[in-house]
Amino acid sequence: AWENHAAILKSKADMLNKEQFSALHYTAPGTDLTLGLPKNHVWESAGAINAQGEGFLPNMPTEEVFTAPDFRRADGYVTSTKPLSYNG
């Protein structure tokens, strides 16, 4: 079952890689945040390959499909109803 789930997550990452979005825009009550994405950014999913070339899921359960934003292109604000840990 996990192999199938990992394949679904990989297909979602592949779809996002084809799009090459310029930015992600998040809105919610108290939040309006735009995060720019670097040119040729890569979306990854949950799977990894070990030193022996075997696939595995290092973080279970997982729903991860992720990339990294361009640190020079962040604009907006975020509000949280819970305490946040940042800068350390």
Which residues sit in consecutive blocks of at least 5 with pLDDT less than 50? none
Q: What is the β-strand count?
A: 7
SS-based class: alpha+beta
Beta-strand residue percentage: 25-35%
Distance between the termini: 37 Å
Measured on Cα atoms, how large is the radius of gyration? 16 Å
Helical fraction equals 10-25%
Q: What is the count of helical runs?
A: 1
Main sheet strand line-up:
1-2-7
H and E order: HEEEEEEE
Largest sheet: 3 strands, antiparallel
Number of domains: 1
Mean pLDDT: 93
Q: Rough shape?
A: globular
GO biological process, one term: proteolysis
Protein name: Aminopeptidase
GO molecular function, one term: aminopeptidase activity
Pfam families: Peptidase_M29
Protein described:
- The protein is of the alpha+beta class.
- It has one domain.
- The protein has one helix and seven strands, in the order αβββββββ.
- The strands form three sheets. The chain has a three-stranded antiparallel sheet, with no helix packed on it. A two-stranded antiparallel ribbon has the order 3-6.
- A hairpin with a 2-residue loop joins strand 1 and strand 2.
Which features characterize this protein?
single chain, 88 residues, alpha+beta, two-stranded antiparallel sheet, 1 helix, 7 strands, 20% helix, globular, metal-binding
Topology diagram in text:
Elements: H1 2-19, E1 23-28, E2 31-36, E3 44-45, E4 48-49, E5 55-56, E6 65-66, E7 74-77
Antiparallel strand pairs: 1-2, 2-7, 3-6, 4-5
Keywords: Aminopeptidase, Hydrolase, Metal-binding, Protease
GO molecular function: aminopeptidase activity; metal ion binding
Protein name: Aminopeptidase
